[in-house]
Write a structure and sequence with these properties.
The structure is a single chain. By secondary structure, the chain is of the alpha/beta class. The chain has 4 helices and 9 strands; from the N terminus they run αβαββββββαβαβ. It has a 3-stranded parallel sheet, covered by helices on one side. Strands 3-4-5 form a 3-stranded antiparallel sheet, with no helix packed on it. Strands 8-7-9 form a 3-stranded parallel sheet. GO terms for molecular function: electron transfer activity; flavin adenine dinucleotide binding.
Length: 201
Protein backbone atom coordinates (compact mmCIF):
# COMPACT_ATOMS: atom_id res chain seq x y z
CA UNK A 1 0.00 0.00 0.00
CA UNK A 2 3.03 2.29 0.17
CA UNK A 3 2.97 5.32 -2.13
CA UNK A 4 6.49 4.52 -3.34
CA UNK A 5 5.30 1.15 -4.69
CA UNK A 6 2.05 2.27 -6.30
CA UNK A 7 3.42 2.50 -9.84
CA UNK A 8 5.85 -0.43 -9.63
CA UNK A 9 9.01 1.58 -10.31
CA UNK A 10 11.89 -0.90 -10.47
CA UNK A 11 14.20 1.04 -8.14
CA UNK A 12 11.58 1.16 -5.39
CA UNK A 13 10.41 -2.45 -5.80
CA UNK A 14 14.03 -3.67 -5.70
CA UNK A 15 14.65 -1.61 -2.56
CA UNK A 16 11.55 -3.14 -0.95
CA UNK A 17 12.70 -6.68 -1.75
CA UNK A 18 16.17 -5.91 -0.37
CA UNK A 19 14.66 -4.40 2.78
CA UNK A 20 12.71 -7.60 3.42
CA UNK A 21 15.71 -9.83 2.69
CA UNK A 22 18.03 -7.61 4.72
CA UNK A 23 15.74 -7.74 7.74
CA UNK A 24 16.67 -11.40 8.12
CA UNK A 25 13.06 -12.18 9.00
CA UNK A 26 12.77 -15.12 6.64
CA UNK A 27 16.37 -16.21 6.00
CA UNK A 28 15.48 -16.31 2.32
CA UNK A 29 17.45 -18.68 0.11
CA UNK A 30 15.51 -18.06 -3.12
CA UNK A 31 13.99 -14.85 -4.53
CA UNK A 32 11.81 -15.42 -7.59
CA UNK A 33 10.45 -13.02 -10.20
CA UNK A 34 8.35 -13.76 -13.29
CA UNK A 35 10.12 -13.45 -16.65
CA UNK A 36 8.03 -10.42 -17.54
CA UNK A 37 9.13 -6.89 -18.39
CA UNK A 38 8.67 -5.93 -14.75
CA UNK A 39 10.41 -9.00 -13.33
CA UNK A 40 13.35 -8.60 -15.71
CA UNK A 41 13.63 -4.97 -14.62
CA UNK A 42 13.72 -5.67 -10.88
CA UNK A 43 15.59 -8.99 -10.57
CA UNK A 44 19.00 -7.78 -11.88
CA UNK A 45 18.94 -4.86 -9.45
CA UNK A 46 18.31 -7.21 -6.53
CA UNK A 47 20.99 -9.67 -7.70
CA UNK A 48 23.55 -6.88 -8.14
CA UNK A 49 22.91 -5.47 -4.67
CA UNK A 50 23.21 -8.95 -3.13
CA UNK A 51 26.37 -9.59 -5.21
CA UNK A 52 25.01 -12.86 -6.61
CA UNK A 53 24.51 -14.19 -10.13
CA UNK A 54 20.98 -14.01 -11.47
CA UNK A 55 19.55 -17.21 -12.95
CA UNK A 56 17.30 -16.22 -15.84
CA UNK A 57 14.21 -17.69 -17.44
CA UNK A 58 14.09 -21.10 -15.75
CA UNK A 59 11.62 -23.70 -17.01
CA UNK A 60 12.35 -26.52 -14.55
CA UNK A 61 13.62 -26.96 -10.99
CA UNK A 62 15.89 -30.01 -10.62
CA UNK A 63 16.90 -29.31 -7.02
CA UNK A 64 17.32 -26.40 -4.61
CA UNK A 65 20.44 -25.23 -6.46
CA UNK A 66 20.00 -26.69 -9.97
CA UNK A 67 17.68 -25.39 -12.68
CA UNK A 68 17.00 -25.78 -16.39
CA UNK A 69 16.71 -22.85 -18.79
CA UNK A 70 16.45 -22.52 -22.57
CA UNK A 71 19.40 -21.16 -24.56
CA UNK A 72 20.08 -20.50 -28.25
CA UNK A 73 16.54 -19.22 -28.84
CA UNK A 74 15.09 -22.33 -27.19
CA UNK A 75 17.00 -24.79 -29.38
CA UNK A 76 18.90 -26.21 -26.39
CA UNK A 77 18.30 -26.55 -22.66
CA UNK A 78 21.09 -25.66 -20.22
CA UNK A 79 21.26 -27.12 -16.73
CA UNK A 80 22.70 -24.50 -14.38
CA UNK A 81 23.80 -24.83 -10.78
CA UNK A 82 24.31 -21.98 -8.34
CA UNK A 83 26.50 -21.97 -5.25
CA UNK A 84 25.24 -18.55 -4.13
CA UNK A 85 23.66 -18.45 -0.68
CA UNK A 86 20.72 -16.49 -2.09
CA UNK A 87 19.47 -17.39 -5.54
CA UNK A 88 17.78 -14.64 -7.56
CA UNK A 89 15.74 -16.28 -10.30
CA UNK A 90 13.40 -15.24 -13.09
CA UNK A 91 10.83 -17.88 -13.99
CA UNK A 92 9.30 -18.50 -17.41
CA UNK A 93 5.73 -18.82 -16.19
CA UNK A 94 4.56 -20.75 -19.25
CA UNK A 95 6.95 -23.55 -18.23
CA UNK A 96 4.99 -24.42 -15.08
CA UNK A 97 1.43 -25.44 -14.28
CA UNK A 98 -0.67 -22.87 -12.47
CA UNK A 99 -0.72 -23.19 -8.68
CA UNK A 100 -3.98 -23.92 -6.89
CA UNK A 101 -5.96 -20.76 -6.21
CA UNK A 102 -6.70 -21.85 -2.65
CA UNK A 103 -4.96 -23.75 0.11
CA UNK A 104 -1.40 -23.30 1.30
CA UNK A 105 -0.21 -22.31 4.73
CA UNK A 106 2.08 -19.33 4.19
CA UNK A 107 1.61 -16.49 6.65
CA UNK A 108 0.80 -13.02 5.35
CA UNK A 109 2.76 -10.35 7.18
CA UNK A 110 2.70 -6.56 6.91
CA UNK A 111 6.01 -4.78 6.30
CA UNK A 112 6.89 -1.11 6.20
CA UNK A 113 7.14 0.38 2.71
CA UNK A 114 10.48 1.84 1.67
CA UNK A 115 10.85 5.52 0.92
CA UNK A 116 10.81 6.68 -2.70
CA UNK A 117 14.35 6.44 -4.09
CA UNK A 118 13.85 9.59 -6.17
CA UNK A 119 15.82 7.99 -9.03
CA UNK A 120 12.87 7.75 -11.40
CA UNK A 121 9.35 9.07 -11.70
CA UNK A 122 6.17 7.61 -13.13
CA UNK A 123 4.99 9.71 -16.08
CA UNK A 124 2.11 7.75 -17.57
CA UNK A 125 0.87 4.44 -18.87
CA UNK A 126 -0.75 3.66 -22.20
CA UNK A 127 -2.64 0.40 -22.10
CA UNK A 128 -3.51 -1.31 -25.36
CA UNK A 129 -7.13 -2.43 -25.28
CA UNK A 130 -8.25 -5.37 -27.36
CA UNK A 131 -11.18 -7.75 -27.58
CA UNK A 132 -8.73 -10.54 -28.28
CA UNK A 133 -7.08 -12.77 -25.64
CA UNK A 134 -3.85 -11.49 -24.09
CA UNK A 135 -0.97 -12.85 -26.16
CA UNK A 136 1.09 -14.47 -23.38
CA UNK A 137 -1.96 -16.28 -21.94
CA UNK A 138 -3.77 -17.19 -25.18
CA UNK A 139 -4.65 -20.82 -25.90
CA UNK A 140 -4.73 -20.14 -29.66
CA UNK A 141 -2.43 -17.76 -31.55
CA UNK A 142 -2.47 -16.83 -35.22
CA UNK A 143 0.85 -15.29 -36.21
CA UNK A 144 2.04 -13.60 -39.39
CA UNK A 145 5.45 -12.89 -40.85
CA UNK A 146 7.25 -10.87 -43.51
CA UNK A 147 5.84 -13.05 -46.31
CA UNK A 148 2.50 -11.25 -45.99
CA UNK A 149 4.12 -8.27 -47.70
CA UNK A 150 2.32 -5.30 -46.11
CA UNK A 151 0.44 -4.10 -43.03
CA UNK A 152 -2.79 -4.17 -45.03
CA UNK A 153 -2.27 -7.78 -46.10
CA UNK A 154 -1.32 -8.71 -42.53
CA UNK A 155 -4.69 -7.44 -41.29
CA UNK A 156 -6.57 -8.87 -44.27
CA UNK A 157 -5.21 -12.41 -43.77
CA UNK A 158 -4.55 -12.71 -40.04
CA UNK A 159 -7.45 -10.83 -38.42
CA UNK A 160 -10.40 -12.79 -39.94
CA UNK A 161 -8.81 -16.13 -39.04
CA UNK A 162 -8.06 -14.95 -35.49
CA UNK A 163 -11.65 -13.70 -35.16
CA UNK A 164 -13.07 -17.06 -36.27
CA UNK A 165 -10.87 -18.98 -33.83
CA UNK A 166 -11.14 -16.54 -30.92
CA UNK A 167 -7.35 -16.34 -31.08
CA UNK A 168 -4.71 -13.81 -30.16
CA UNK A 169 -2.63 -12.29 -32.96
CA UNK A 170 1.15 -12.59 -33.01
CA UNK A 171 3.84 -11.41 -35.38
CA UNK A 172 7.40 -12.34 -36.21
CA UNK A 173 10.24 -9.92 -35.56
CA UNK A 174 10.60 -9.41 -39.31
CA UNK A 175 6.93 -8.42 -39.62
CA UNK A 176 7.24 -5.99 -36.71
CA UNK A 177 10.48 -4.50 -38.07
CA UNK A 178 8.80 -4.03 -41.46
CA UNK A 179 5.93 -2.15 -39.82
CA UNK A 180 3.25 -4.74 -40.60
CA UNK A 181 2.31 -5.15 -36.93
CA UNK A 182 2.88 -3.25 -33.67
CA UNK A 183 5.74 -4.21 -31.36
CA UNK A 184 3.45 -5.60 -28.65
CA UNK A 185 2.44 -8.45 -31.00
CA UNK A 186 5.99 -9.74 -31.45
CA UNK A 187 6.56 -13.31 -30.28
CA UNK A 188 9.78 -15.25 -29.86
CA UNK A 189 13.21 -14.69 -28.39
CA UNK A 190 13.10 -10.90 -28.69
CA UNK A 191 9.34 -10.65 -28.15
CA UNK A 192 6.80 -12.28 -25.88
CA UNK A 193 7.17 -15.84 -24.66
CA UNK A 194 4.03 -17.82 -25.50
CA UNK A 195 2.84 -21.37 -24.88
CA UNK A 196 -0.49 -21.84 -26.69
CA UNK A 197 -2.27 -25.12 -27.29
CA UNK A 198 -2.48 -24.19 -30.99
CA UNK A 199 -0.06 -21.92 -32.87
CA UNK A 200 -0.80 -21.10 -36.51
CA UNK A 201 1.87 -19.22 -38.47
Amino acid sequence: DGASLKDGLAENVAAQVLAIVGSGAGNYSHILFPSTASGKNVAPRVAAKLDVAQISDITKVDSADTFERPIYAGNAIATVQSADAVKVITVRTTGFDAAAASGGSAAVEAVAAVADSGKSAFVGREVTKSERPELTAAKIIVSGGRALGSAEKFQEVISPLADKLGAAIGASRAAVDAGYAPNDLQVGQTGKIVAPQLYIA
